[in-house]
Amino acid sequence: MKLSTSTLVPATGVSSKTCIIVGNPFWRYPIAVSPPAAATRPLLEGIRAFEHRPYRIISHVAEDGRVFNASFFDSAQSMREFVDWYAKNALEPGSPYHSSLADAAAPGTPLPTAESLLFGRAEQVLHDTRFGEYQLGMAVRYSVARFRSAEMAAEAKEIACTSAFERRIARQMHDTGLSYFGRLVMATDELTWLTASRYGSLSDAHAATAVIQQTAVPGEMERWFSRYDSIYGTASRLFDTDSFD
Known about the structure:
The protein is of the alpha+beta class. 31% of the residues lie in helices and 31% in strands. The two termini are 28 Å apart.
């Protein structure tokens, strides 16, 4: 997909206090837009009025056409408060904004529950090498990595959260002709990371997965992680919750 000239996110990295939640793909259209669809306007108005709302929501189109969101918060408390508020006010049948979600659900896709809504969440920035302006049409691979032990997590941080490791990734991306714009590495807890890596296209994002596995010392990925799951999407919309029509 051709990149838009509309800038989404400034070139500077996120704050060290930034927290993020990434949803699973449930929606047939982006919910977080301005102006919103008539059916989802009450939900967006409720989000904007909530004290602990995310400051930014980026919509992504997954490979099957369904939409998922990445939401950014100023603090871990705000993130937790919002997840609780959303579960009570939008996810529960009969709650104030449940009908908004029912309209937005993709065909054949059950509405999310508090347990199924999120692909991942993170509360601590470990490493941020993203560069350039974030544009509509960029592909993002979000990955949740679960470590085999605290010792493996500490070792991975010492190796993978360094400029030297990033240079190895960037060099191999360049040598294989892939458009790569850096990655954000965050911790969910002692044994879990959430990463967001930016690419020029979905095909580049998929090809880069193999490149990254080759970049690590052979066997490191398998030795560090007991599980490694990824979700791919193309950034399609951005919603700043302070600006709403």
